[in-house]
Amino acid sequence: MENQEWKCLACTFINKKTDYLTCEICEMEKEEEPDTSSSSTTKRSRSINSNSRPSPSSSPDGKKKPRPTSPPSSSTSSSNTNYSIFQGKSEKRNSNPPGLFTAGLRRNGAEDKDGKRSLSLEDYKTLLKQHSIEVVVDMRVGRGTAKCKFTLEGKGCNISEPKWACDCSIEGVHNKLEIEYLFRGTTISTNKGGEPSGYNLGGTNINCLCRNDKGVEERKWIKNGGQLRRAMMDSNNTKGKDCENDAKKTISGVVYDEHAKKELDKIFNLANKKRVLLICVEDELHKCHKNDWVKIYVDEGRGEVIAIEPSDEVSSQPGVGWTNFPINLANRKTYDVTLKGLSAARRPPDSKKKKKKN
Question: What is the pTM of this model?
Answer without folding.
Answer: 0.69
